Amino acid sequence: MVTTRSSTADNEGPGGSIHEPSDPRDRAEHSLPPKSYAQAADPENNAQEFGDKGVNGSASNGIGNGMVNGNVANTKKVDDEKVLYQEHKGQNGESLLTSIKPSEEYEQSLRHSAKTAPRKEVGPGKPKKRQDTTSTSTQPAANLASGRQAGAGWQTSAIRWAPLNVPLQRRLQTLAVLWHTTTIPIFLSLFFLLCAIPLTWPLLIPYLLYIVVFSEEATNGTLSRRSNWLRRSKFWSAFASYFPARLHRTVELEPTRKYIFGYHPHGIISHGAFAAFATEALGFGDLFPGITNTLLTLDTNFRVPLYRDYALAMGLASVSRESIENLLSKGGHNGEGMGRAVTIVIGGARESLDAKPHSLRLVLKSRKGFVKLAIRMGADLVPVLAFGENELYEQVDSVEHPWIHKMQMVIKKAMGFTVPLFHARGIFNYDVGLLPYRRNVNVVVGRPIKVVQQGGRDGKVDEAYLDQVHQQYTDELLWLWNEYKDTFARERKGELEIVE
Predict the structure, then answer these.
(1) What are the CA-CA distances from residue 238 to residues 102, 168, 268, 306, 386 (Å)?
(2) How far apart are CA 239 and CA 392, in angstroms?
(3) Domain annotation covers residue 137
(4) Residue 14 preceded by cis peptide, ω within 30
(5) 82 with 99: CB under 8 angstroms?
(6) Cα–Cα distances in Å, from 128 out to 29, 137, 138, 139?
(7) pLDDT tens profile 225-240
(8) Containing domain of residue 192, as a range?
(9) Total domain count for the chain?
(10) CA 425 to CA 419: how far, in whole Å?
(11) What CATH number is associated with residue 271?
(12) N or C: which end of the chain has fewer CB within 10 A?
């Protein structure tokens, strides 16, 4: 009896699937490689593998609308140049696989031969290394496909990051400015931390009661909490040299007179006013010997726990009428305020909304209260113009966003101050953050305007004389601008404007 090998029909298994032949002679007829005994003994694996490959042993690639292991592959473009989106679905329509495949154009753009691949240049007189030697083979060079260059995005980033090798002096300058900018939230955080500790309650409760009911240090004019050691600390030299800031004197001031300094412009945070009149970093005591100056700020700052004590130690006082009258009528060389001065940032919160680089818009026409106080107290008026104060921050334009400006004015009317939407630089970058830019601030102290005292502390001031002194003050301020704008405001985009 002659035994014949199984036909193709005999190799069909259940469901019509084709079993891969295990006999070596049958496998040779179908151009199949020999199989091990373990592989030949597994008919299920043979049928699946043989059915997938077919007789010629080729497998489907599943690209386009073909079949991938029984799944339909749908292809569509997402980007004309870079990628193709492939979604492979089963026969029941359920999504099984999603993949991204580079397009042919994108693949071609990545390919380069070994001859065009970048290599390090070899200096003259140096022997070429093995990888630098050009191949003399007649075979064509293999194509290479390169991915993206890691870290290349840092070079085109919109944010400029500070280098790691910044000198220690500049780091200390940044630390000083960071401290001054964040003192209120720092002291508030410390206060709430103490409130969370029950052991501190016996101290905090009397302290808060004293602040709310009994404290008068910010308005009594005695300056009893003022610390000259703190004001003269070298820490503030680092603060002032950050910008850097300079204080300039046009004429000497007599130490036997009283003075009200009007600081312009307000800017965002009035860094120049703090450096010049709240510290000795710029040498106020050397330029104006015999004069004790006090920088005035909002009375609400002296209701902030812990921060108020820090502000009093720096020699700050309230900008209220009571505070100004007490400061200019107590102490000094004769016990009646001679040789004392106060500094008021005239424009206030309203002017901060116009603090934009390379421009100077002042709120002054409607501000006559400080002139009236000067006439009542017999204090000379001294205009102060800070070139560069508005350059320290960038601010959202109120013309382009009028609804923001309206909201800021509502906040100012309700709370007495407003919050400009501003930004500058950060601690570790030069483009995003709340720290001011490193730009020059030049504080120029103008010539004093002699004032004849009228009315006393509660008397009436002649309106005509009030307007006359106010106009003299405005003219002196304009003289300061015209005299020094070409020296300290060379990049200006306009002239000084008095808007209100």
Answers:
(1) 55, 11, 20, 24, 19
(2) 14
(3) no
(4) no
(5) no
(6) 54, 18, 21, 22
(7) 999 999 999 999 999 9
(8) 168-498
(9) 1
(10) 18
(11) 3.40.1130
(12) N
